[in-house]
Amino acid sequence: MEMYDDRLFSAEVSGSNVVSVAEHVVMQILALVRNFIPAYKQVINGEWDIARIADKAYDLENKHVGTVAAGRIGLRVLQRLKPFNVHLHYYDKFRLDKSIEKDLNVTYHPNVESLAKVCDVVTINCPLHPETEHLFDKKMISLMKKGSYIVNTARGKIMDRDALVDAVKSNHIEGYAGDVWYPQPAAKDHPWRSMPRHAMTPHYSGTTLDAQARYAAGVQEILGNWLNNQAQREEYLIVDQGKVVSRAYTEGDATKGHASNK
Ligand SMILES: NC(=O)C1=CN([C@@H]2O[C@H](COP(=O)(O)OP(=O)(O)OC[C@H]3O[C@@H](n4cnc5c(N)ncnc54)[C@H](O)[C@@H]3O)[C@@H](O)[C@H]2O)C=CC1
Predict the structure, then answer these.
(1) Which residue ranges make up each domain of the chain?
(2) For ligand 1, is residue 72 a contact (CB within 6 Å)?
(3) Which terminus, N or C, of the chain has the lesser number of Cβ atoms within 10 Å?
(4) Which biological process, per GO, is one annotated for this protein (predicted)?
């Protein structure tokens, strides 16, 4: 017989840092496409060579930008990119509500391969699980357009580490950014630190002071509810009374903009 203490549960302050990560994605897309890092380095190094920077700087406008997953973060990335007048694309296991697709004028792809083939920028916003581990391997990367960019703030292991390095070194991938590595903290000699044309950061995109204030308020609320024997917010619960109850692990979640599938 399985026995559970009905007061035991596992919860998270869901969504507390999704805006923070989405803003980081937009920042890193712009940093890559506009060739910001080499330009900044020139300033630090006392140089002034506009031709050398402009040679690899583009506008984002009119480019095709796609997200692998349109959950809480992926959807916010799409929403933030809409005013840049780009062509938006997404793949997700669950389709967004039709009204959201229409509002964003976003093209749905039935699989990652189809999206990868047409995008100038691919941003990865899906969870790491057996299906997505090394999803971006040599084969997937080779399908991407020559000269395209990848921004991955999801998990480092979604990339095949060395296949990415090879693709950047051979100029197939023009630039890579994100804040997630495998393992973390990244070793001093992790090859992504020294590969060309990257705009990586340590894993801090979801840890802005605004996000920290939201986690702290959420944790206070969860503890207060627990101490006062009050119900927790449904969207915060992951495991309750021995059962996984998180909608993220069960079905598409209408709170994230997925079409209702009930
Ligand atoms: N860099 C950072 O600081 C942070 C990174 N993350 C990462 O971002 C990921 C996404 O976060 P949220 O948007 O909040 O999660 P979410 O649960 O709201 O959305 C995840 C989406 O991925 C989709 N999905 C699942 N498996 C998929 C697959 N095989 N292919 C395509 N889509 C798939 C789901 O249907 C869902 O729409 C997290 O799993 C986490 O790894 C999350 C927060 C902070």
Answers:
(1) 2-13+208-244, 18-200
(2) yes
(3) N
(4) monocarboxylic acid metabolic process
